[in-house]
Amino acid sequence: MSAINDVTDLANDGEIAILTLNSPPVNALSAPVRDGLADGFKKAIADANTKAIVLICDGKTFIAGADISEFGKAPKGASLFDVQNGIENSPKPVIAAIHGTALGGGLEVALTCHYRVAVPSARCGLPEVNLGLLPGAGGTQRLPRIVGPQKALEMVTSGQHVPGKQCLEMGLVDELAPEGKLRESAIAFARKVLAEKRPLKKVRDSNEKVEAARGHAEIFANFRKENARKFRGFLAPEYNIRCIEAAVNEPFEQGLKTERKLFLELVTGSQSAAQRYVFFAERQAWKIPDVPDDTPTIPVNKVGVIGAGTMGGGIAMNFANVGLPVAIVETKQDALDRGLSVIRKNYENTAKRGRLTMDDVEKRMALIKGSLALEDLADSDLVIEAVFENMDVKKDVFGKLDKIVKQGAILATNSSALNIDEIATATKRPEVVIGLHFFSPANVMRLLEVVRADKTSKPVIATSMQIAKKIGKIAALVGVTPGFVGNRILAQRQREAQKLVLEGATPWAVDKVLYDFGFPMGPFAMSDLAGLDIGWIKEKSKGETIRDVLCEMDRRGQKTGAGYYDYDENRNAKPSPVTEKILADFRAKKGINARTISDEEILERCIYPMINEGAKILEEKKAIRASDIDIVWINGYGWPVYRGGPMFWADTIGLDKVLAAMKTFEAKMGEAFKPAALLEKLAAEGKRFGDL
Ligand code: T1G
Predict the structure, then answer these.
(1) What does 470-502 look like in DSSP terms, one character per residue?
(2) How many angstroms is it from 324 CA to the middle of ligand 1?
(3) Is residue 670 very low, low, confident or very high in pLDDT (cuts 50, 70, 90)?
């Protein structure tokens, strides 16, 4: 065994050279790794005793792509293309031995090897699109030559990680090795290649599948049409499609040039910068400065959920999905039956879409036990309360749990806004009380706001973050403040959206500005979807707000066929002359002269107060870092990921610009636009939230 450099070793097993990478955490193609590969292959190829070469990685995974942290920096070390050409043009067979994840540049390197062997648990993919990019090292030209253009389109625009067995079926790998026996299997395979004098298979030369698709432009037209809604606002998916088109319509080298040109456009663009920021922000969010990784955690093997409504049911599914038994408690049998049947229906729908088997459905339902007695939660390690959003109701439940549930268990509330410190006062063990704020539908939405109360212990925080990761959530630790981070910031946007409509804008004009900005829908369409009568009490309604008037007229949203919008039988929304009349009457009653409001003012008044509130949240230390606020808004409130989140976006447009506009609005509209001290300070110092 000889060290090529700090991250690369070269050894021989007889006539087989084994080049091993060891660059934790994920053997990313950093400069040292590229140098190691370049020198290692040169040495092995030059060694007369070596007849074939196996490329393998130590650690948890094969190469998981280019080193994302190097993007935007001056290139150093060997170029990836030179490394790949060195491998592909090797006069000796090169076999890639894949475990963990061969992703992005990692799979692209493997695709320049002549053969690939993988363990079944391995997964291969080109997920660059999730970083606002495309596979820029030949992946868009080589992948369709193996799996065909259609499958290549699906893989590069979804970023899916394809399991080993499927990779074998698609021809992405040539053989599966038994788990734990990858190295010896790859060496044996290399010997087989030599013994059977198999050719040096270059993927670039296998053109059958791309030639077969030549002249079938409908492949791409249909794909674009089928995915138009999903790809809306993103640049990268379209650029990936163009590269696969080039693979079909252009010779390999020309296709590589097209890929390079489009890659450079994306990597220097704002969308990829935002999505790369989000990649690291999602990983930063797990790190809590005063709760180190070695903080002891509480074993959670049994979960209790109180309330089998929409939230309670969804929450329970998260735990059953990862094999944890859940007891779900309701007050009445019919409510319990209804809750359990909704859970079963959700699972059965997922099975109908082929993402679960009926056996999976039964296994998960078997893990969810219904109950009418809180006492059945006595032995739970974690109890999550999801009852009606009322402080007295919650304190009553926590008081009861305090008497029933075993010591050491975590008592969590799914409150979306209430003061967790106050809820904790209903118990004698506030140190185990924490907020676990799920988002509806709780079994689908990725975000979990973990709300740390004053007395919440570090083991409870560490355990809650760990559980969040286990159930596949993106968690952000936030402090106790009304509405926590997400809803507190949302309130700013909702307030301004309502005011803009009073001043003369139409609900659909406001919605269009935010929809075009990249949100899945605007605030008024969102309200119609959720129902305008949430928290509305008919007896107390006095027509004081637009919503009151709409609800009094039984325009309660999609469910009544009308709200702010009118809806057809397929729930398609269209602007409503009735709502326009209601608005005009309402303004007249309030003595408001409607004015024309520009899209720019609508956007600034809806977004800038959100950024300002984010700054206040940071000032008050209710969020650890600005990127956590971005993670909350991207994963819980539909902020377009290619804009990086409100705080990142503010940094891209310039805090001085946000501050200036806030001051202008403050002068005209008062205190609501008073700039946060932190915003003033950073703008004055020419700094960004990202510098904090
Ligand atoms: N570059 C740099 N750092 C990376 C990295 C990468 N590609 N992948 C992971 N890390 C860091 C990550 O920040 C974290 O650091 C640690 O590794 C563990 O990651 C030319 C242009 C491989 C499935 O998109 O999907 O190739 O927080 O917490 O959950 O065409 O990481 O510990 O300091 O996510 O076990 C394409 C990205 C790149 C794959 C492992 N590749 N990575 O998941 O660990 S672009 C990707 C992942 C490219 C070429 C193009 C996942 C993983 P820290 P982790 P995990």
Answers:
(1) HTT-EEEEEE-STTTTHHHHHHHHHHHHHHHHH
(2) 28
(3) very high
Residue 489 contacts residue 646 (beta carbons within 8 Å): yes
Of 108, 449, 604, 613, which residue is the catalytic one? 108
- Rounded mean pLDDT, 92-117: 98
410-413 vs 382-385, strand pairing mode: parallel
Give the residue whose CA is nearest to atom 37 of ligand 1. Answer: 64
- CA dihedral sign of residues 141, 142, 148, 150: negative
Separation of alpha carbons 316 and 319, rounded Å: 6
Predicted confidence band of residue 132 (pLDDT cuts 50, 70, 90): very high
Residues with CB under 6 A from ligand 1: 25-26, 28, 61, 64-69, 101, 103-105, 108, 127-128, 131, 133, 135-137, 139, 280, 283
> Phi-psi category of 638—alpha, beta or left, where left has phi over 0 and alpha has psi -120 to 50?
left
CA of residue 64 to ligand 1 center, whole Å: 6
Distance of CA 87 from the midpoint of ligand 1 (Å) = 23
- Please write the tens of the pLDDT for every residue from 24-35: 999 999 999 999
Rg (Cα) of the chain, in Å, rounded?
A: 28
Q: Is the pLDDT of residue 541 over 90?
A: no
Cβ-based burial of 185 (10 A; exposed 0-12, middle 13-18, buried ≥19): buried
Q: What does residue 102 show for φ and ψ, rounded to 5 degrees?
A: -100, 100
DSSP letter for each residue of 265-323:
HHHTSHHHHHHHHHHHHHHHTT-BTTB-TT--------EEEE--SHHHHHHHHHHHHTT
| pLDDT tens for each residue of 160-183 | 999 999 999 999 999 999 999 999
- The answer to whether 382 and 414 have CB atoms below 8 angstroms apart is no
> Distance (Å, rounded) from C-alpha 252 to C-alpha 250?
6
Active-site residue 250, yes or no? no
pLDDT grade, residue 190 (50/70/90)? very high
Q: What is the whole-number distance in angstroms between the Cα of residue 310 and the centre of ligand 1?
A: 35
pLDDT reported for residue 538: 85
What is the predicted pLDDT for the residue at 250?
A: 98
Ligand 1, from 26, 128, 263: best to mutate by most atoms within 8 Å of Cβ?
A: 26
User: Can you give the pLDDT at residue 652?
Assistant: 98
What percent of the chain stands above pLDDT 70?
A: 100
Contact between 425 and 372 under an 8 Å Cβ cutoff? The reply is no
Please check whether residue 464 is in contact with residue 410, taking contact to mean a CB–CB distance below 8 angstroms. Answer: yes
Assigned token pair, 477: 């630790």
* Per-residue tokens: 237: 């998916």
Three-class DSSP category at 76: coil
Is there a catalytic annotation at residue 108? yes
